[in-house]
């Protein structure tokens, strides 16, 4: 009996019945599932783009025609003197021949240039200046950077990240609308009880707080469920992306962001409910 | 304590435009600890006067001063503490159907954040006083009309309000139940609460002679 009375003390408006708990939990769970997928997608895209940027931007090559050992050694020496170069290494002629075989066949007599791979210490270094420095010492040497390709990749990554944020904002907006509708229905169902409490001296903060705590609890529960439901899909996507993303694993998921989803959903529900109930109460004197 | 000064009241329609005045030029003062009957036929304006006394409305013109607070000029946040000092007995009871008798009476104390041990003591004492001891776990619909009316009175007085306002508190009751309710109201008044009772009954004021304000067509026609 004492426990039941304590429960009533916490819920005099009977909101456990008035707020459509299963519907609200289900809808918020669906929103949270979408948000979890968007969050993981944004995180994965960000990591993939970073890997592309690191790999492609750092991979500058220098082609040295007539690759005698002296010309190759001279080119390597010039490159290693440049502060923006982290590493420079000649590509093994046997590996070059292997790479060219699908296009040129086994034509050993063709004049193939020597190739030096460079990894830049500073990704913003000007590859043209670097090429000029090599060409001044080794005539005919050509430097090739992948700036345009990197630029396209970076733009694509930014667009995907922006899209993920837009999806998250849309999900938050829809969740707020769902909570607003549920709270208005709850206000209709408990209109008489709210009027009685108002007449007995309950403040707007008191009434709105009771609704907001209940809505935040239901939304938090729904979001936790939705996030849990997203985990198998994320696990499958992670294993599929592994070969493309340098062995991406389960541990690489944005766990902190995912754990924040129920809190974020509860926060959105709390704020929406406060605004909805207070606006409704303002019609009373 | 309660002062009406040239009060007019009109209810707004759905578009917020004020309709015809239901109270016009009503003025009176009720002293602290007084007992007052408000009389008049249906539609005379009794309920509107009581709703103003419950701080459930603000006057369209004039001023209503309740327990030192001028309603027309009061800030919205000043009204909830004022309402907690006013006990209200509604004609249609307005009990919460999902709560037990015990929890209905406890509601005003819980809103005032009174410790649960004090709530328990006060509610049990009051339920015994109104003769509902042993029925505390029943829902309102499981109680008779008279029991629901007494429960409403218990909820109105549990905070020991400075002002008790009752609208037709005996309209749904038989003569024996009506006498019992009147006894509760006079007992509250004897303990210092200012009591205002609206009724269209002619018998009730005869059983407890006190000041009578008679309304007709939204105007105060008799004060004596």
Task: Tell me briefly what this model is.
The complex is a heterodimer of chains A (285) and B (224). With 285 residues, chain A is of the alpha+beta class. Chain A has ten helices and four strands.
Number of DSSP E strands of chain B:
10
Percentage of β-strand residues of chain B: 25-35%
- Quick one: overall form of chain B? globular
Q: What are the secondary-structure elements of chain B, in order, as H or E? A: EEEHEEHEHHHEHEHEE
Structural class of chain B: alpha/beta
N- to C-terminal separation of chain A?
A: 37 Å
Interface with most residues: A-B, 21 and 31 residues
CATH fold topology of chain B: Rossmann fold
Number of helices of chain A: 10
The overall pLDDT of chain A, averaged over residues, is: 82
Instruction: Tell me the helix content of chain B.
Output: 25-40%
Query: How many domains make up the coordinates of chain B?
Result: 1
Number of strands of chain A: 4
Please work out how many helical segments of chain B DSSP would assign: 7
CATH-scheme architecture of chain B: 3-Layer(aba) Sandwich
Q: What string, H for helix and E for strand, traces the elements of chain A in order?
A: HHHEHEHEHEHHHH
Low-confidence stretches of chain A: none
Query: What is Rg of chain A?
Result: 31 Å
Largest sheet of chain B: 6 strands, mixed
Shape of chain A: rod-shaped
């Amino acid at each position: 009996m004492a426990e039941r009375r304590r429960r009533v003390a916490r819920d005099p408006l009977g909101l456990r019945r008035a707020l459509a708990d299963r519907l609200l939990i289900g809808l918020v769970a669906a929103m949270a599932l979408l948000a979890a997928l968007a969050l993981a997608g944004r995180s994965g895209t960000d990591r993939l783009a970073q890997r592309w940027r690191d790999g492609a931007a750092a991979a500058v090559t220098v082609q040295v025609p007539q690759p005698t050992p002296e010309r190759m050694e001279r080119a390597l020496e010039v490159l290693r003197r440049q502060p923006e170069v982290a590493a420079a290494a000649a590509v093994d002629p046997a590996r070059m021949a292997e790479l060219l075989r699908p296009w040129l066949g086994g034509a050993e007599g063709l004049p193939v240039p020597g190739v030096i791979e460079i990894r830049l210490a500073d990704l913003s270094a000007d590859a043209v200046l670097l090429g000029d420095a090599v060409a001044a010492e080794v005539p005919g040497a050509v430097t090739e950077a992948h700036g345009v390709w990197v630029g396209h990749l970076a733009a694509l990554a930014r667009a995907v990240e922006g899209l993920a944020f837009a999806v998250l904002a849309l999900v938050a907006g829809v969740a707020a609308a769902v909570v607003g509708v549920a709270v208005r229905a709850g206000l209709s169902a408990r209109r008489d009880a709210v009027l009685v409490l108002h007449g007995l001296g309950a403040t707007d903060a008191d009434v709105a707080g009771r609704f907001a705590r209940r809505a935040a609890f239901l939304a938090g529960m729904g979001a936790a469920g939705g996030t849990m439901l997203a985990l198998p899909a994320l696990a499958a996507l992670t294993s599929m992306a592994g070969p493309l993303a340098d062995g991406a694993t389960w541990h690489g998921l944005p766990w902190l962001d995912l754990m924040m989803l129920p809190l974020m959903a509860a926060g959105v529900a709390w704020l929406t409910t406060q605004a909805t109930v207070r606006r409704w109460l303002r019609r009373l004197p | 304590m309660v002062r009406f000064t040239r009060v007019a009241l009109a209810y707004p329609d759905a578009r917020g435009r004020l309709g015809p005045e239901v109270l016009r030029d009503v003025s009176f003062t009720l002293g602290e600890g007084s007992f007052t009957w408000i009389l008049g036929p249906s539609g005379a304006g009794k309920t509107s006067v009581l709703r103003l006394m419950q701080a459930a409305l603000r006057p369209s013109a004039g001023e209503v001063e309740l327990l030192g607070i001028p309603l027309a000029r009061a800030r919205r946040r000043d009204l909830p503490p004022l309402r907690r000092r006013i006990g209200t007995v509604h004609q249609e009871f307005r009990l919460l159907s999902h709560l037990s008798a015990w929890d209905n009476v406890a509601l005003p104390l819980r809103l005032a954040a009174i410790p649960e041990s004090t709530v328990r003591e006060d509610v049990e004492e009051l339920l015994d006083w109104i003769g509902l001891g042993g029925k505390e776990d029943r829902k309102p619909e499981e109680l008779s009309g008279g029991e629901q009316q007494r429960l409403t009175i218990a909820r109105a007085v549990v905070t020991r309000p400075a002002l008790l306002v009752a609208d037709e508190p005996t309209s749904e009751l038989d003569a024996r139940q009506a006498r019992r309710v009147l006894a509760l109201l006079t007992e509250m008044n004897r303990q210092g609460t200012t009591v205002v009772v609206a009724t269209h009954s002619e018998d009730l004021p005869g059983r407890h002679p006190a000041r009578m304000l008679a309304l007709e067509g939204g105007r105060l026609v008799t004060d004596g």
